[in-house]
């Protein structure tokens, strides 16, 4: 189990060794540079100012906060990319969504969303549920149901969920939850006006990453508590 994080300038470092870095990305920061000079500030470039060999292995949406794994060098990037492709990296997110989420009878507090996803090209970067899309699977578990808004939220029913993406499609968690009628609060792309107005940010956080360390083989788990 990794130790607690430390703030180093404009980076929150959760873990550092000779092979991998785990950083805690704030909401609103890009994972990688975008198009245009105004979209150059991003986590990977901030990391490369300290570790020039740091390379991205996966990404988080700009609006999503939480744990991001980086490789130190191209060889480790290839190794970690294969781990992701083989689904050997396990991820857990937390989200607060509109309404009360219920599963099937006898499994009220857990379930899964199995809906194929496809790029919505006329409305990029949005994605959509489509039978022609790629298979996409999300498992969820209820952590709490709230009748009134938490601090900083407009009042109304909401559910705090643990989310376990089995696949890793773009915007998967956001689209899947919107598709079952429970958009993530503060989601500027997929929430309705009421759900969007209930939070000043997207309430989605990557709070746990686990894998067998590519060098030692030891099971390693990194955590970041959600800031909401």
From TrEMBL:
Gene3D superfamilies: Pseudouridine synthase. One of its GO terms (molecular function) is tRNA pseudouridine(32) synthase activity. InterPro entries: PsdUridine_synth_cat_dom_sf (IPR020103), PsdUridine_synth_RluA-like_CS (IPR006224), PsdUridine_synth_RsuA/RluA (IPR006145), RluA_PseudoU_synthase (IPR050188). It comes from the Bacteria. Keywords: Isomerase, rRNA processing, tRNA processing. Pfam families: PseudoU_synth_2. The keyword tRNA processing applies. One of its GO terms (biological process) is tRNA processing. Residues 19-179 form the Pseudouridine synthase RsuA/RluA-like domain. The keyword RNA-binding does not apply. PROSITE patterns: PSI_RLU. Its EC number is 5.4.99.28, 5.4.99.29. It catalyses: uridine(32) in tRNA = pseudouridine(32) in tRNA; uridine(746) in 23S rRNA = pseudouridine(746) in 23S rRNA. Dual specificity enzyme that catalyzes the synthesis of pseudouridine from uracil-746 in 23S ribosomal RNA and from uracil-32 in the anticodon stem and loop of transfer RNAs. Belongs to the pseudouridine synthase RluA family. PANTHER family: DUAL-SPECIFICITY RNA PSEUDOURIDINE SYNTHASE RLUA, MITOCHONDRIAL RNA PSEUDOURIDINE SYNTHASE. This is Dual-specificity RNA pseudouridine synthase RluA.
């Amino acid at each position: 189990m990794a130790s607690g994080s430390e703030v180093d300038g404009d980076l929150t470092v959760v873990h550092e060794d000779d092979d991998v870095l785990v950083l805690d990305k704030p909401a609103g920061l890009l994972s990688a540079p975008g198009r245009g000079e105004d979209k150059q500030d991003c986590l990977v470039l901030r990391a490369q100012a300290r570790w020039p060999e740091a390379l991205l292995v996966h990404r988080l949406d700009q609006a999503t906060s939480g744990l991001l794994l980086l490789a130190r060098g191209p060889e480790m990037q290839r190794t970690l990319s294969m781990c992701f492709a083989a689904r050997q990296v396990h991820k857990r997110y937390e989200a607060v969504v509109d309404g009360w989420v219920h599963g099937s009878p006898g499994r009220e507090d857990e379930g899964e969303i199995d809906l194929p996803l496809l790029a919505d090209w006329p409305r990029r970067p949005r994605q959509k549920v489509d039978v022609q899309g790629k298979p996409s699977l999300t498992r969820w578990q209820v952590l709490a149901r709230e009748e009134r808004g938490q601090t900083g939220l407009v009042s109304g029913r909401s559910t705090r969920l643990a989310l376990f993406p089995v696949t890793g499609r773009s915007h998967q968690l956001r689209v899947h939850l919107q598709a079952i009628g429970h958009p993530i609060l503060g989601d500027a792309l997929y929430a309705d006006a009421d759900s969007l107005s209930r939070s000043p940010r997207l309430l989605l956080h990557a709070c746990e990453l686990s894998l067998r360390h590519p060098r030692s083989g030891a099971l390693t788990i990194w955590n970041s508590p959600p800031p909401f």
